[in-house]
Every structure is written in structure tokens, then in C-alpha cells.
Design brief:
Chain lengths: 221, 238
């Protein structure tokens, strides 16, 4: 059997989860503690992928990541390569799609931190950025783990957005969920079966791992 | 370098309006009923809450001047602030808590020994007693070599025996610290034990009547002398 869609799914999930966490953590910090005009507008925007059909999100990403779109245009100018129908393209698309799944647990963990700890950090000479690294992140480890798992699992099961932005190019954008769909369409149930089962097992092991890690963690959410 | 505080702030039930001064080596106690505005004052000094109007300066260093739109954030003020409780970092050991903002990391061991918490160095704040935590908090505040020390009800969450002991320790420690210290407490006895100057705040204003009323019950003779608390303590009005 061909395992490449599965390996591609795992690679996509890992890469997009890592980059997403690096970007989502500071964004969530600003949303949780920052006071600025238009905050609720940004919050609603971040949550939008939760309620939009993947095809709608995928359609807009297709425009933005395309050669005439904002991100796609910049990327093409710098690298000379297109973003659509590439691995990097579906990484970026997955990050947008999974953003609320990372932000929500992070936010819950950040808001659980006693604000007096942040005041103490400030009085002790920490800038807000230093406080983020020295106080907020270490006390939100549970939230970081939860965010990573949700984003990872969500990306593993992603279908519509990837299909819109990446199509189904074997080895590049043909992830497990898309491969399963195509096997079923071609009435190749045996392959669909195998790939589906592999996805179930991997997801289950990931969740088990998380419960195990969470039991060890004493602080945070 | 004296600490100069003038501020007004609209609060839900009254307006806070005070003028205070605290010289280095002196401990100014702010006493009065809860909700009188004491904590609001120290929070403004710490830079954690911005008053409506006023002026706060340490010697020539202006921290807040509403007229000149100067507002120094807390991290630039160089102070030590000990809260009532729950302010040690739970992810760090006692030693790392004290070292968190230490100017000279070599002094950390010295401070741990001075506060008798050396044996707790590897423990976490949630594994030690309330009295030990407040010692750690004091050591943490002093490790940053502050220019001003703010103590906001530092002992009020402790049991009586521990409180008395920490009061005695602070009294001893105070002599070696040449910086302005503001100590908020609702415990007048604590204020009388520790303070060089005592100011009563009631409903946002400096109040003699509150202190006198209190003293009539606690020390009838002291109150009879008018404003004086005892020969070496005095209420302070700039």
C-alpha cells in the first residue's frame, strides 16, 4: 500500500502546528492582555475559520495565495515560485484554518494566570515581552500542549481547504484525507480502509500521548 | 532622595486626594479602613494604575506628572513591591524566584540566608508556608536593589504568631535599608511597631480623626496628646 499520503499528512500537520504556535502565542497574548481599539473585530476574525465552510475559506485563500493575491504575490516576487498547489501553500492554508483551534486553549491558559504575577513581573523590571517569555509561557504549558494537539489533529483531518488550495498532487499536496476520498470514488475500498484505519490509530495515539503528558504537567490549563 | 506623592483619583464613592512624602531610611505607614484608597496610592507609586491627576517623583526622577504627561511604566521605576499573597512565580523554585530580578546574582545566596529560607531554595512556592512565602517575596523584592520599597498588607494573610515574627524581622531589616518604605496596613499596632511616620487615610483623604478614634481605644493616653502617636512616632502632614 502507498503510505505517502499519510506521511505527507503527518509532515503537513507537524510543520504547520509548529509555525502556528510560534505565531499564535504572541497573538493570543495581545488578545488576552492588550487593550486596543478594534480588539473585538480581531477576535471575531480569528474565530471565523470555526464557522466558515472550508470551501469558503479555501476559496479566499486561493485568491490570497494566488499569484495575484497578497501573500502569493509577495512569495512569488521573493522566491520566484508559486504558492498554490505546493506543500508550502497548504502549510499556510492549514495555519489559517487551524488558527482558532490554537488560540482558544492558549487564551484559556493565559487568562488563568493570576494577573498579579504579571504585575509582579512588571514591578521587578520585566517589559511586557520579557514577561511573556519568563512568566506567561512557562505557566501556560498545558495550554501550549492543548493548542498543539488541537491544531495537529485538526490539520490531520483537513480536507476542503487543502483541496481548494493544493489540489491533489501525489507527494506534494495529496494528503491522507484526500487520498481516502479518491480511493472511495474509485471504489478502491481496500486502500480506503487501510488509510482510514491508519489515520484513526495515529489520532488515537496522539490523544493518548497528550493525556499522558497532561497528567505530568502541574501548572497551567 | 525622598519620594514625593501627590495624587487625585475619582473612585466610585469618593475622591482620593492625598499629598505624601517619604524620606530614605524611613518607613511611612498608611493605615485606615479597607477601601479607603491605601492600595490605590501604592499602586500608583508602583506604576500599576494611573491616577487622574498628580505628581510622583523620587528625588529628581519624575515617575508621573499629569501636567507634563509623564508616566513611567512599572518596569522602569526600580522598586520592590510585596503584595499580600500569591505573587511568587509558581513555575520557579524559591531560589530562582529570588534571583528573578537580582541585580547581582551572587547576592541571592546571601538574601536566602538573611531571610532564613536557604533550606527551601529548591522548593516551589506552593510547597512552603505562607510566612515563608512572604520572606521569599521580601528577598525577591530586595534582590533587585530597589530604590523604593512598597509593602501592601504583606503580613495580613498570616497567622498571628508568624505575623509577629515577620514584623520583628522587618523592623530589624529596616535599619539596614536606606530607602523610602511605604507600608500599607489596616493593623495600627503593626504600624506603630514599624513606622517612623503614620498617616491615616479615610475615604480618600488624610484623616486625623480616624487615628484619634482608634487611639482612644488602643492608647487613651496617646490620643490625649492630640496628634502624636507616641514620642517617637508622629502623624505626618506635609
Amino acid at each position: 500500500m502507498d503510505f505517502s499520503p499519510l506521511i505527507l499528512s503527518l509532515r503537513l500537520s507537524m510543520v504547520s502546528t509548529v509555525i502556528l504556535l510560534v505565531l499564535a502565542a504572541p497573538l493570543t497574548y495581545v488578545l488576552a492582555y492588550g487593550r486596543f481599539r478594534g480588539k473585538i473585530l480581531v477576535e471575531a476574525l480569528v474565530g471565523l475559520p470555526l464557522v466558515l465552510p472550508p470551501t469558503v475559506l479555501g476559496f479566499y485563500l486561493l485568491l490570497v495565495l494566488g499569484p495575484d493575491g497578497m501573500i502569493g504575490g509577495i512569495w512569488q516576487a521573493i522566491s520566484g515560485q508559486p504558492l498554490l498547489f505546493t506543500f508550502i501553500g497548504i502549510v499556510i492554508a492549514s495555519m489559517f484554518h487551524s488558527l482558532p483551534y490554537a488560540v482558544q486553549p492558549l487564551r484559556a491558559a493565559f487568562e488563568k494566570i493570576d494577573p498579579r504575577l504579571l504585575e509582579t513581573a512588571a514591578v521587578l523590571g520585566c517589559s511586557p515581552m520579557a514577561a511573556f517569555f519568563r512568566v506567561v509561557l512557562p505557566n501556560a504549558r498545558g495550554g501550549l500542549v492543548a493548542a498543539a494537539v488541537l491544531a495537529f489533529a485538526h490539520t490531520m483531518g483537513e480536507f476542503g481547504v487543502i483541496l481548494m488550495v493544493g489540489g491533489s498532487i501525489p507527494g506534494k499536496t495529496r494528503v491522507a484525507s484526500i487520498a481516502i476520498y479518491e480511493y472511495v470514488e474509485a471504489l478502491r475500498y481496500h486502500e480506503a480502509w487501510q488509510l482510514s484505519l491508519a489515520l484513526v490509530v495515529i489520532s488515537y495515539v496522539v490523544l493518548l500521548l497528550v493525556s499522558y503528558l497532561n497528567r505530568g504537567g502541574r501548572y497551567g490549563a | 532622595m525622598g519620594l514625593e506623592i501627590k495624587l487625585t483619583q475619582k473612585l466610585p464613592n469618593y475622591e482620593l486626594d492625598v499629598v505624601l512624602r517619604c524620606e530614605p531610611g524611613r518607613l511611612l505607614a498608611l493605615v485606615g479602613p479597607s477601601g479607603a484608597g491605601k492600595t490605590t496610592i501604592v499602586r500608583a507609586v508602583a506604576g500599576l494604575a494611573k491616577p487622574d491627576q498628580g505628581f510622583i517623583a523620587l528625588g529628581p526622577e519624575v515617575w508621573y506628572d499629569s501636567k507634563a504627561s509623564i508616566w513611567l511604566p512599572p518596569q522602569k521605576r526600580g522598586l520592590g513591591y510585596v503584595f499580600q499573597e500569591f505573587t511568587l512565580f509558581p513555575h520557579l523554585t524559591v531560589e530562582k524566584n529570588v534571583a528573578f530580578a537580582a541585580v547581582d546574582k551572587r547576592r541571592v545566596g546571601e538574601l536566602l540566608a538573611m531571610f532564613g529560607i536557604g533550606e527551601l531554595a529548591a522548593r516551589r512556592p506552593q510547597e512552603i508556608s505562607g510566612g515563608e512565602r512572604q520572606r521569599v517575596a521580601l528577598a525577591q523584592a530586595l534582590a533587585r536593589e530597589p530604590k523604593v520599597l512598597l509593602l501592601d498588607e504583606p503580613f495580613s494573610a498570616l497567622d498571628i504568631a508568624t505575623r509577629k515574627q515577620l514584623q520583628a524581622e522587618l523592623k530589624e531589616l529596616k535599619a539596614s535599608l536606606n530607602l523610602p518604605i511605604i507600608h500599607v496596613t489596616h493593623d495600627l499596632q503593626e504600624a506603630m511597631l514599624l513606622a517612623d511616620d503614620i498617616v491615616a487615610i479615610e475615604a480618600g483623604r488624610l484623616s486625623h480623626s480616624w487615628l484619634d478614634r482608634f487611639l482612644v481605644h488602643a492608647h487613651p493616653a496617646g490620643a490625649a496628646g492630640g496628634r502624636g502617636v507616641s514620642s517617637d512616632k508622629r502623624t505626618f502632614l506635609p
